[in-house]
Structures are given as structure tokens and as C-alpha cells.
Amino acid sequence: MSNHSENSFTRFLSGKGFYFVLALCLAGAGAAAYLAVETAPDAVTEPEPQPAPITQPGDHEEWTFPQFEEAAGSQPGVAVEKDRGAASSSGESSSRQPSPAQQKESAASEMPASSPKLSLIQPIDGEVFTQYSNGELVKSETLGDWRTHNGIDIAADEGTPVKAAAKGSVTGVRSDALWGYVVEITHPDGTLSSYCGLAKQPQVKKGDDVALGQVIGAVGYLPAESLMPSHLHFECRRDGKYVDPMSLIGK
Fold first, then answer.
1. Is residue 196 a contact partner of residue 232, using CB atoms and an 8 Å limit?
2. Which residues of 87-112 are buried (b: 16+ CB within 10 A; e: fewer)?
3. pTM of the model
4. Which of 7, 115, 143, 196 is 20 to 30 Å from the Cα of 98, by its Cα?
5. Is-contact 154 246, C-beta < 8 A?
6. pLDDT for 75
7. How many angstroms separate the CA atoms of 33 and 146, rounded?
8. Per the UniProt record, which residue ranges are transmembrane (predicted)?
9. Farthest CA pair distance, the chain
């Protein structure tokens, strides 16, 4: 090639000819790519991405899963059985609920039964000539001192039968230096009655159960009140404290 031709080609490339050739190359490459895609087997076209939905406040509640009861209720027959069970349970609950009167009776039945009020009889028929002093000091004619009189004195001749003032259990039989032979009986309510100044060999012993009016002994000798007329000294105690026997007799 001559120098003139080389210079012409060089000027062509450095001028608009370069761009023309470049455009032809790009067009050829694009056509080749198009033909390759169209002729490729089982071409897979990916879906265009969709924009995410706009969520408004409260929309998430529509997507919560149903409760187990709701899911079961969608099955045939389950909702009916559930309703029947609920009605049956409600009926049983109402039938088991006691009325106020029944509740009061039940509470009363659960309370421990109180012992019947103790009522005594006079151990012997006679005049009560010395009263219970209720803690006040009185002059003892026999001992010559001042002391409380913790019972009552009932006039009676020696040998007069002495009766149990109420039913109970004999919890003591003893001989006392001041009060002679003494029998003690504990009654159902816990009251203790003491019969002082009995004759020897009382007719009951410790552990015996006695009935109301049962003879337990006889009037005998009473050392602490020997200068007084023949009598029975009778005492009562509750919770370890002396009480007036007359407040219990015939009540």
C-alpha cells in the first residue's frame, strides 16, 4: 500500500469513520445476542418484582391464626357438641350451687355441737343456811379465822342420803383433813361438783358414771365446820374457778 492510501485510511479512522465502524460492531453484537436468546430451549423468564403492599395500622389483626375453639367450630358437628357441653356444664354448675338457706344449714351443721346447759338439783332436801360468799371473807366459827366460803351449807342429819346433782363421772374420792370424805363429779359441760363432809365409805368410786339423783353417799362428819349444825357442804367449779351452786340449781 502506498503512503497515500495509508494516510487516507488513517484520516478515515481518526475522523467520522471510526464511529461508523464502532456502530456496526455494536449492532452486530446485539443481533447475535437476540438470536441466541430466541433460539435457546426452555428459556425461563423471571417475573418482575412486585411492589410490597402498604400495610395500614390494624391490618395485622386480619392475619392472626384462629383460636382452637374457632378451628374446631368450623368442622361439622363440633360446634353443636361444644354448645351442648357448655349448656350442660352451666346447668350442672347452677344445680350444684347451694341456696343461701342451704349454705346457712351447712355452716350450722359444721359447727361443733355445744353441750346442753347444766341444770343441777339440790343434793339433799334441806335449808341452805350458809350462802356462797363470792370471794368475800367470812368468820369461821370452828377455825376462828376469816376465810372465803366457796360453797353452800345444806342442813341435814347425819346419815341422810346425798344424791348426785347431775349426771356425770366420778373424778375424785378422797379423805380430807378439813372437809372429811369428799366425792367429786365432773359433769358433761365440764362443771365440777364437790360433796364435802360425807360418811365413811361413799357408795361410788373414782371412774364410776352416775345418773342424776343417784345416791353417792350419806351426810357424815365435817371437821372444818364441826361447830355448826349437821349439814352437807356443797361446792361447784368451772374452769378451775368457784361459782355459786345456787346459780345452777333448778336453772
1. yes
2. eeeeeeeeeeeeeeeeeeeeeeeeee
3. 0.56
4. 115
5. no
6. 42
7. 141
8. 18-37
9. 184
Predicted confidence at residue 8, as pLDDT, reads: 57
Lookup: cell for 95: 344445680
Q: Is 181 in contact with 217 (CB distance < 8 Å)? A: yes
Q: Which residues contact 176 (CB under 8 A, 6 or more apart)?
A: 182, 196
Per-residue confidence at 212, pLDDT binned at 50, 70, 90?
A: very high
Is residue 12 very low, low, confident or very high in pLDDT (cuts 50, 70, 90)? low
Which amino acid, 245?
P
pLDDT of residue 50: 55
Cell of 128: 341452805
Q: What is the pLDDT of residues 57-75, one digit of tens each?
A: 444 444 343 443 444 444 4
Q: How far is the C-alpha of 231 from the C-alpha of 160, rounded, in Å?
A: 9
Q: At what angle do helices 16-39 and 3-14 cross, to 10 degrees?
A: 70
